[in-house]
Task: inverse folding
């Protein structure tokens, strides 16, 4: 029982981590919480499903297409909803509200375009299952974990080992100084939005396959939960988002099976509050940040 | 050919006129100082030159090209490097990473060689290469900020208040560095509150008052001028 729940928790937690990374990366370069991130996660799943239904049988093509489309939309969110505000040097609260607004627009556009009923999502990763002790592990879970690990490793390599990563980290450390070194800060911000949208799309699609459904609650539910994960791990810190996502996935799964499944969506926030009471900068966070 | 020329440069912050038409020029090989009281517009001038704040009137010429609206990145690539007020190092980067950021736009191949030259100039930083920027003392951070600017091999080095908040002995060190950099043939535009030290290392100087150039002369002449001695050097 415990092993089974642990495996289930790690699977869902790794998906939370991918979405939490988006919050964390955007926060680190802009000191802004992008509240449209949950909507990108849902949008990714819906676009992948729509393309799949159009391109009957070509799942990989549909998946690749959804990454491109949502990536471009992610760029657009910054270009049209946030960059104009930065240019006018309006205060941070305006940008924050703007991300909320974008989220609402995306959620409602999805409802208009695809309808409000729950839709079934075909699982393309269903290759059966095997048992470990008395726990059953599906190949879907293994593949999800594999994809997630590869993505996180690749992202860490880029951020900590390449010139593009240096540009991103220096922007996060000190925007004006980065600009004085010749870093193209505008491009860094754009890339960050594209990467976070792509990560959200991967997570949205994989989770939908795992649960075999998509519905309109995905955005708010996972959006807020992964935000909690990012804060819990230490917002602005890449490994923090990963640890935070995994932890929330595991603890909510264990909580749902050992305490009560009715509180499933509340565990994330209880954990977050507890951690922040003890360590306000989050588990792996550096000095507490006053900006939100 | 002037390396830098400002013509009637104007900057506004909302309804406040920070610069009301600045004219100045810097010739290759010179060290020029801009002195002035708090709020006179010294830092604004520096930031407008590199393009961190937009000019609302007038022009900036760099190596005889109009660069008033040019992106900061392009100016950095062409060797116009600002070491900003308040040092602005990357606190979470090691000293080495900070220095390498200075060479961000330059080829990977030549960076190690430049690093060696810069470390010879700033031996104290060599001992600190692996340390986080945030763990350095104020003086060391200032050294790091100047060293980082030198990593870009500047043709024109803009130094904004390098002595701000430092102990007198450290300030002496910093000015010794500035002289060395000048001797190496780098053109320097210096902004300083410490007018006496700045004038001593400079060829010419401009005095900035509420967004305008009030005086312009050779540094030696300004050191002797009554107005400057009274207002900026604190002498009877």
Result:
């Amino acid at each position: 029982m415990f092993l089974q729940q642990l495996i289930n928790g790690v699977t869902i937690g790794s998906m939370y981590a991918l979405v939490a990374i988006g919050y964390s990366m955007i926060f680190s370069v802009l000191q802004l919480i992008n509240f449209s991130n949950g909507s990108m996660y849902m949008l990714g799943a819906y676009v992948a499903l729509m393309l799949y239904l159009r391109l009957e049988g070509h799942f990989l093509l549909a998946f690749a297409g959804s990454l491109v489309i949502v990536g471009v939309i992610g760029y657009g969110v910054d270009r049209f909803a946030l960059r104009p505000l930065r240019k006018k040097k309006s205060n941070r609260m305006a940008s924050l509200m703007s991300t909320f607004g974008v989220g609402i627009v995306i959620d409602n556009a999805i409802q208009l375009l695809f309808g409000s009923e729950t839709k079934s999502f075909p699982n393309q990763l269903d290759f059966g299952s095997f048992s470990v002790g008395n726990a059953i592990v599906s190949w879907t879970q293994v593949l999800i974990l594999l994809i997630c690990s590869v993505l996180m490793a690749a992202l860490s390599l880029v951020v900590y080992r390449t010139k593009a990563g240096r540009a991103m980290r220096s922007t996060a450390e000190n925007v004006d100084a980065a600009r004085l070194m010749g870093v193209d800060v505008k491009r860094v911000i754009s890339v960050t939005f594209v990467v976070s949208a792509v990560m959200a799309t991967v997570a949205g699609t994989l989770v939908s396959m795992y649960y075999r459904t998509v519905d309109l609650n995905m955005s708010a539910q996972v959006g807020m939960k992964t935000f909690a994960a990012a804060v819990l791990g230490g917002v602005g810190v890449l490994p923090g988002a990963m640890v935070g996502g995994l932890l929330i996935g595991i603890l909510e799964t264990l909580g749902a099976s050992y305490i009560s499944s009715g509180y499933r969506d509340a565990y994330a926030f209880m954990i977050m509050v507890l951690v922040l009471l003890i360590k306000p900068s989050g588990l792996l966070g550096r000095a507490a940040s006053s900006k939100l | 050919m002037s390396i830098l020329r400002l013509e009637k440069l104007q900057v506004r912050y909302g309804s406040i006129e920070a610069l009301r038409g600045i004219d100045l020029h810097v010739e290759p090989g010179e060290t020029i100082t801009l002195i002035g009281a708090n709020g006179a517009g010294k830092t604004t001038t520096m930031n407008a030159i590199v393009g961190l704040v937009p000019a609302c009137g007038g022009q900036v010429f760099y190596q005889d090209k109009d660069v008033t609206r040019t992106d900061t990145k392009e100016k950095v690539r062409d060797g116009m490097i600002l070491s900003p007020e308040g040092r602005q190092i990357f606190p979470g980067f090691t000293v080495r990473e900070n220095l390498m950021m200075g060479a961000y736009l330059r080829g990977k191949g030549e960076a190690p060689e430049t690093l060696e030259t810069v470390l010879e100039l700033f031996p104290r930083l060599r001992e600190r290469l692996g340390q986080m920027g945030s763990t350095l003392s104020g003086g060391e951070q200032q050294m790091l900020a100047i060293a980082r600017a030198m990593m870009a091999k500047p043709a024109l080095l803009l130094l904004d208040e390098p002595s701000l908040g430092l102990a007198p002995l450290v300030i002496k060190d910093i000015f010794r560095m500035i002289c060395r950099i000048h001797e190496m043939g780098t053109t320097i535009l210096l902004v300083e509150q410490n007018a006496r030290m700045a004038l001593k290392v400079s060829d010419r100087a401009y005095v900035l008052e509420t967004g305008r150039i009030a005086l312009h002369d050779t540094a030696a002449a300004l050191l002797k001028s009554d107005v400057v001695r009274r207002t900026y050097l604190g002498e009877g």
Summary: The CA atoms of residues 27 and 33 of chain A lie 6 Å apart. Chain A has eleven helices and four strands. Strands of chain A lie at 119-120, 129-132, 135-138, 213-214.
